[in-house]
Amino acid sequence: MLTDPKAAKVRGVAKLAKKDARSETGLFLLEGPQGFREALDRPKLILEAYATEEFLARHADLAAAAKAKRIDIALVDERVLASLSDTTTPQGILAVCHQLHVSIEEVLAGQPKLIAVLSQIRDPGNAGTVLRAADAAGADAVIFSTGSVDVYNPKVVRSTTGSLFHLPIVIDQDVAALANVLKAAGLQILAADASGKELPELSATASLAQPTAWLFGNEAWGFEPETLKLADQVAAVPIYGAAESLNLATAASVCLYASAFAQNA
User: Fold this and answer.
1) Are 31 and 89 in contact (CB under 8 A)?
2) DSSP-derived secondary structure letter, 2
3) Class of 104-263 in CATH
4) Is the dihedral of CA 46, 52, 55, 57 positive or negative?
């Protein structure tokens, strides 16, 4: 059992909470039972895992599933786990995983019908929730622009609750160049912005049934004007109540599901 938070092994794993260490090693941290359970479907991605005795006693099924996939879980005490986690209340298990992003060419080879593009999205919780919503809506990929939050940020990873392992992720894309590539592949670009046509109007046409890449902008300032011009159409989620605005992740969920409804009708 690892009991020294200052041990070299522990410090090496803890460094993966920083982006520079993740970029250098090609690894990231996965914390919590739900994410670990989802990762077991792709066991080659898991390099190593750490858990407390109490956690393994409470989650004997998860321990057995890991053993069946030949994944050893190293025992650590509460102090070591706390030093590895960036949360105030660690969830009892943490894994070191290989990064899993793919190229845009690999995504387009699958002839995608629905893609979420995150342009300059900085909030980890919003980014992770959009990824989770894209997974639920049956999207074919999620693309992170240059300048967006790192998809392997521990807060992003946790907020996806395992959806990170369900669909292709592309990172570090220039939005202008990406838009040209997506259009050449036959996808329309729809930007979600309050200045656009209300979403029910688009739903009344055949627009949403077409292969679509939804473009979602920064939580605070939305889109730069030149980015908004890349879109074939701009769509707004109407607000019927007294709310001043919608959370980015909520609006993105509505847009993605509007396309999913149309494409699966």
Assistant:
1) no
2) B
3) alpha beta
4) positive
Q: Which two tokens stand for residue 143?
A: 């693309």
Q: What is the CATH number of domain 8-98?
A: 3.30.1330.30
Model's pTM, two decimal places? Answer: 0.94
Burial classification of residue 49, based on how many CB atoms lie within 10 Å of its CB (0-12 exposed, 13-18 middle, 19 or more buried) = buried
Q: What is the pLDDT along the chain (265 residues), one digit of tens a residue?
A: 999 999 999 999 999 999 999 999 999 999 999 999 999 999 999 999 999 999 999 999 999 999 999 999 999 999 999 999 988 889 999 999 999 999 999 999 999 999 999 999 999 999 999 999 999 999 999 999 999 999 999 999 999 999 999 999 999 999 999 999 999 999 999 999 999 999 999 888 889 999 999 999 998 888 999 999 999 999 999 999 999 888 999 999 999 999 999 999 8
Give the count of alpha carbons within 13 A of 155, CB side only: 13
Query: Could you give the residue range(s) of every CATH 3.40.1280.10 domain in the chain?
Result: 104-263
